Fold this protein.
Amino acid sequence: MENTAREAQMPNDSEILRRLASRVAQLEGCITQALAAADRFHEIADRMERRAGGLPPRYLNMRDAANYCGLCLRTIEGAVAKGEITSFMRGRRLVLRESLESWVEGKVAAITHAPH
């Protein structure tokens, strides 16, 4: 009797295959998103590198920092609030350009070297 009840609770082969296919589809979606994010950060890093040829100032206000790396202001504000980007107040908040560049490069490295 116990074996019959246990067998009834075990999924059959088609159920196992269905679950496996569902999980594979989820993983494919995650990989696609990670690759898209990595491409976006590479674009940002390339844009920053091209702009650096014009020797931008050492310190940028928050809006200029966002424009410099092609991200939205809220993204930069969030990273500054978390202490991920070095900043200080001089009448208004200024961001150290080298810190901003390092932060973007770190994001690119984290995405491109993350296990898939």
Summary: Residues 2-112 form one domain. The beta strands are 59-61, 87-89, 93-96. DSSP finds five helices and three strands in the chain. The mean pLDDT is 81.
